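Memo to structure team: turn this sequence into structure tokens by end of day. - J.P.
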Amino acid sequence: MTQLPEIFETYKPYIEKEIKSLLCNTELLNISKRKAALYEMMSYHMGWADETGAKITSNGGKYLRATLTLLSCESICGDFKIALPVAAAIELIHNFSLVHDDIQDDDEIRRHRPTVWKIWGKPQAINVGSAMKTLANLSVINLKKNNIAADKLIEVLKILDESCLRMLEGQFLDIDFEAKPDVNTADYLKMIERKTAALIECALQIGAVTVMDFSKINPFKNFGKYLGLAFQIRDDILGIWGNDKKTGKPSGNDLRKKKKSFPVVYVLSNADSISKQNFLEIYSKDQILDSDIEKILEILNNLNIRKVSETKAQEFYDLALAEIKKLPVKAEKIMHFKEISNFLVNRDF
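Reply from structure team:
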């Protein structure tokens, strides 16, 4: 599946306008006297500018989390614009994590272009990511303009910061697992519940909590958890077998980085002793070469690991669909939740 559901395009112009309104500081540009100041680096990462700061039309992100935020809000009250400040906030948090993730993994390509650190260096890329996180919190305060009460602001900020912390815990575990040969599937699932699912849960919750009582948003959290788990396992599949022209990342990059993705963890936990030993001999090398990746793929394919991974993603997708039935939303909006879920578990980018 290569096409985003229509709801993504419906919200996209509003999300971009909201975020762009935050990435504007001409005074800093004048002081810096550089062709690409801090905010222009952010715009570059978002796909709105080239490395000189000139405006372009590029292949940016999907705005998944912002879209889920607006959909959950509109599905309850009929007006997604109320939640635009928090949709911008969660998209900025997601992108701050991507900028820092690229630094941590030494990834040079994202969305078919050089990463921020590759162009401007790691110190400035850290500044870019940290500034995006700060702008996210400031964006939440803009909810006041939509007549959202102070206690709601506090609830939103609490959900946002708790989710961000869980995401960072997951990122810590993801890096920590790289040096551990004994990671099992239970460990892996606990890691991605934090690294990936936490922010998807958050998106659905904060969209809902802006317009309904905090005590009623739990179904959104549960749906987000299962959707996030299915999303990450699909991402792991694409990280090994995906088409780099579609994903925007070098093929086999997760294997080069010795990531403990679901296919890898499943082999380490469930493969026969000979396959596991052969796999570990390669994965324990200081550097994994292209020839090593070919051997890894041969092991994975012989064990039918791609099919196993797809089945696991489907399990979480089915759980997410079951949770959709419990969402306190307008009946005509249910279709959009199902379309997004279907896209995420079958996408090829």
